[in-house]
Structures are given as C-alpha cells and as structure tokens.
Amino acid sequence: MSPIRTRKISPRVAIIGTGFSGIAAAIALKKKGIEDFVIFERADGLGGTWRHNRYPGAEVDLESHIYSFSYERYDWTRTHAGWSELLGYLEHVAGKWGLYPHMRFNEAVNEVTWSDERRDYVVATSSGKDHGRFTSVISAVGFLNTPLVPPFVRDEHDFEGPICHTSEWVDGLDMTDKSIGVLGTGSSAVQVIAEAEKVGSEVKVFQIEPNWLLPKNAHDFTSLERKLNRFAPVYFWRRLKLYADYDMRQHFTGHAREDGRSNRNRRRASIEFLHRELADRPDLIELATPKFAFEGRRTVTSDTYYSSLKSPKVTLVPHAVKGLSRSGAIDENGDEHQLDMIVLATGFDAANYLGTYKVRGEGGVDLHESWNREPDAFLGMMVPGFPNFFIMFGPNTNAIPLVTFYEAQANFAAGSISRAAKKCATKVEVRRSAFLIYNDWLQSRLSRTVWAKTTSYFRGGTGKIISQWPFSASSYVLATKLLRRLVVKVS
Ligand code: NAP
Questions:
Q1: Which ligand 1 atom sits nearest the alpha carbon of residue 67?
Q2: CATH assignment at residue 32
Q3: For the whole prediction, is pTM greater than 0.85?
Q4: Cis geometry, peptide bond prior to residue 401 (ω within 30 degrees of 0)
Q5: 365 lies in the same domain as 479
Q6: Biggest alpha carbon–alpha carbon distance for the chain
Q7: Which of the residues 35, 55, 352, 412 has the least number of beta carbons within 10 Å of its own beta carbon?
C-alpha cells in the first residue's frame, strides 16, 4: 500500500550528464520551479560530446542555428559550429541559467537503485560520497559515448607511435609532418582526414565500406551575416527555415524509404556530388561509391573529404586494419603500412545504451539485463518497472534536429515530475500496455525503412533497429505532449 500523503511532495532530482541533453533537462526543471537537483558529470567540466570530441576538425554536422536551444540565441561565428564554440555556448547557457552550483564534476555515476519501500533512488558515484536520496533520475548520457576500440589496439601490441580514438583526443597530440593512418570513413573520420591532409606528411585512409556523402556548405559567417543574425527576427527565421526543411525531409519517413521523395532526391544529389568532385579520378569514384541503400547508415556531410582524397599526400586503402606492427598497421590483405601515428575514427558501442552505469528498478531488476542489448523505451524515455526514471536521447529517438528532441524530452520529464509532486504522488511510471503497443507499432514502421536492410550501429544484435526515430521532429514533439497524460500514471 502506498503511504498516505497530504502535503505536496518536494521533488529532488538527479541528472546524469552535463551535455546538451543534461543542460536541457536542468533548465526544464527550473522552468517548472524545481530547484532541488544535482547534475553528476564524470568529466572535469561540462559539455559531454563537445568536451570529449575535440579532435582536429571536430564540428557539428547540423547548422548552429538549429543545433542550439530554441530559447537561447548565440552570436555564432560559423554556419556549423566547431567543438570549442559549442562548448563555449553550453558554458554560457549553464552560467546564465545558474546551473554550475548544481554540477558535481569528476563524479561518475556507477549505479542507480530504486527502493520499492521508500519509492526513491540512491545514486552511487565514483567518490563513494553519500548524495542523499532522489525522488527521480534523469539520464542524459547520450548513446555514442563508449568508444569502439578494435581488439588489436586493446590487446598488447608493439606499435611505437601514438594511437588515439577521435572521442579521446589527447590535448597537444600533433599531426604535423607525421605519416597518419586514419581508420574509418564515417562522420568523425572525414573531419579529421581533412585536417591530417593539411598538416601531415602522408595520410592513409583505411576504408571497410564507403559512405554516402553530401556537401555540408559550411563556412564562417561574414561580419555582415553576424550583424544580421543578432536581430532576433533574422535569427528565428533562419532557425524556422532549417526546422521546416528537416521536418519536411522526414515527413512520413520520406528520408528513410527507398521510394521516398526526399530519399531519391538526396541520393541523386549525393551521386552527382561524388562524380563532380572526383571527375578526374575514376579509380576513386569506384572505391568511394557505396553499395548499400542511401541513408541506410548515417549520411556523411563534408565539403572537403573528396578533395582531401585527391591530394597526393592521401591514399585510400580499401581494407580494414587487422593488426599492428612496431612501425605501422597491417591491413586485411596482409600489407603493412608504415605510420607515425594512428587515429581511430572507429565509432561507438551504440547498442550499449546507458552502458556506463547500472540501473536497478522495481524488485532489483537490472535494466541492461532486461534490455539484453536491444534497448527500448516508451518514446525513448520510460521503461516499465523503472519508475521515476527518464532517459534523454534514449532508444529510437535519434533524428534531426537533435536539440528539438532534447527539449521535448526535458519538458516531458520535468512535466511528469512536477505533475506527480502536485498530486502528492511518489511514483511516475509508464503503462506496460502502452509501452508494448508503442514499440510494436514503431518496429513495424521501422521494418519498412532502409535501416532494416543495412548493417549499421542503428541496429542491435538481432537486427532490431534500436536508435532511430523514423518520422519528423514535430511528430515526436506532438507525441510527447499528447501521450504524457494518457499513458504515464502517477500514484
Ligand atoms: P561511425 O560512423 O560508426 O564510423 C566508424 C568507422 O570506422 C566506419 O567507417 C567503420 O567501417 C570504420 N572501422 C571500424 N573498424 C575499422 C577497422 N578495423 N579498420 C578500418 N576501419 C574501421 O563513427 P563516427 O564517424 O565516429 O560517427 C559516429 C556518429 O557520431 C555519427 O554517425 C554521428 O551520429 C556522430 N557524429 C556527429 C558528428 C557531427 O555532428 N559533426 C561528427 C562525428 C560524429 P564500416 O562502417 O564500414 O564497418
């Protein structure tokens, strides 16, 4: 039986992570008048992705005006902000909203445990400190945070030069005049390759499969553009136009079905770009033409990748790296490549949602054991049996524009916590039937997409699509608003 309650409950919330989504969650709580929250961060400063991904050339693929909070304008210097400008933006927002006093740096969360008796959580962190009890937990750790490091690097090896994963770039690691091996041809790789080509003596790009690529049209804003962008109507017009373009593209999954108009148009544009950029290098056209369905994997955007490939300094090796020698890498053909340093642009263990800590729900059930590497959640946020636990950027919520999703999730979580408090309730949970129906419906829609035909990090071990949201951002935002009161029960 639940305890008799007569007074409004005072929520105390733990947020895990200080990246874009953690900051969105904290601001949403403040907007609801909830001031009692702690934000745990394992790093020594805020920023998440944009603190860790500081490899040369790291910048966002989305336009700065849309890859930012709808309520926080900024004087962007570039159409697509680089990592340090994004970090500066997040620091600015956190300062403005008074979030620093809530942040606990160098506090990695190890375990989050629900008490059936007390109806609250205990959060165990790396320092071993007692942080008190929390009525709710908001996980904001993203899903691309555990670097995939190939076994031949993890195992003992005798390569003598530096080896660095893009998301763990060592400050001061210099590529100047080096012979650099880059493993991978995804979004991170194309950015680092362009920088390596500028300063290195030689670059070897190891490619398992080529990716679809579109131009990014990135550039620094002129001083006139910056002046104009400082006017609120100009800023919001830019944002609105980008939002509408992305929404239209994803309308009824048009981007992710082979017969979708957006998919066909962008595929054509991608082929034209490839043939235009590499017109004088038919050998490279052959090597760089993808064999999988367009949009089957994350489409890479870059203005520089194809021109880098044509540089006399750059060699595209159409093989995976399979091992290391003292002075280089050995590809799957058995050929050895002499290298001074190796950059692992090898991606992340994406299926391992919330993989950096344990979550125990009702009856001590372990969230990861119940997921069994095929995570699912209602609207990516709530799992039955894990009351008062909200996931930001959770399963099947990866779509564009990302920050719109974070804001919707933050509002959902803060709204649910606030509603429970007003009703003097201690438990917020998703109805199991709604969770099951929602996931069945979503998977049936996803099965018609190109993602179902392509091997990628979008899919779990048995092939289930675990990361992607197939529709527009507007449909997601609408669902979070309409369904919250219907399927989330408070008691
Ligand atoms: P990724 O897209 O998963 O790419 C990893 C690459 O490493 C793939 O090309 C993979 O080949 C290759 N690879 C793995 N093992 C290899 C080996 N032994 N030898 C040679 N190549 C190997 O990773 P990512 O580029 O880091 O991007 C991950 C995600 O992060 C993106 O999809 C995006 O969502 C996000 N991201 C965003 C931005 C941005 O907004 N600017 C920038 C970077 C990343 P195969 O795939 O062919 O197996």
A1: 40
A2: 3.50.50.60
A3: yes
A4: yes
A5: yes
A6: 77
A7: 35
